[in-house]
Amino acid sequence: MGSSKRSAGRPSKPVLNREMIAQQALELVIDRGLDSLTMTQLSKKLGVAASALYNHVDNKADLVLLIQDALVSQVSLKGMLGLIDGEVTLTDALEDWARSYRAVFANYPSLIPMIAITPVSDAPQTLRMYNVVAQAIMSAGIPDDAVIRVIVSFESFLFGSALDVNAPSDVLDAGEQSTDSAWLKQAIGAAQAPSEQQQSTRPHAEALGEVRNAYAEPPFQYGLAALIRQTLELVEERV
Amino acid sequence: MGSSKRSAGRPSKPVLNREMIAQQALELVIDRGLDSLTMTQLSKKLGVAASALYNHVDNKADLVLLIQDALVSQVSLKGMLGLIDGEVTLTDALEDWARSYRAVFANYPSLIPMIAITPVSDAPQTLRMYNVVAQAIMSAGIPDDAVIRVIVSFESFLFGSALDVNAPSDVLDAGEQSTDSAWLKQAIGAAQAPSEQQQSTRPHAEALGEVRNAYAEPPFQYGLAALIRQTLELVEERV
Question: pTM, whole model, 2 decimals?
Answer without folding.
Answer: 0.87
